[in-house]
Amino acid sequence: QIMKKVAVKFDPKTLHVPTHSAEKLSSMKDVDWNQFLKRVCSLLDSTEKNTGAARSKLNLLYYLCTVAVHKETARRLISSQLFPILIQQLRAAANWDIRAQVARVIGLLALHTPVLGENVPVSEAVILLTELIRENFRNSKLKQCLLPALGELLYLIAVEEEKGEHPRECWAVPSAAYTVLMRCLREG
């Protein structure tokens, strides 16, 4: 069963980064962009374990969901140091709400990125999403959070490989990803 996602809303008052629009982010000069990214990455990479820190991370992820729908901003974000931090958060976050929102950000970035650089670690994200789905196969709620991101990444890789601009080894997709995806489709 495919569930329509609820629109995300972030609280700009409690967000610890400037709430620039996606258009402003896409047109930022490199110096300002790097400062913004540095703040976002340090907030996401924070190891604080209290409830306020988790709420703050979720709010930041909601904000990233709103700006990731702009093509140029998505391209800049997926090609930046933010993407490896998102993968790390997907792997290490103790809170499944954070993991679900990280997966949503990854899926939105993959959906809206017009061009994928060959240095973007999408293979690592595909492998991690596949493992998480396999480990939590009986949890349909988690699968509904993780499967869209996996599907968007696989589609993005397929589109890039079809263009033929990068070598096929650039984004290796393990066969386990297709096996897990087919099993999910078959068993629901």
TrEMBL record:
TM stretches of this protein: none
Keyword line: Kinase, Transferase
Keyword Kinase set for record: yes
Cross-referenced InterPro entries: ARM-like, ARM-type_fold, ULK4
Gene Ontology molecular function: any one: kinase activity
Family matches, as PANTHER family: SER/THR PROTEIN KINASE ULK4, SERINE_THREONINE-PROTEIN KINASE ULK4
Name of the featured protein: ULK4 kinase
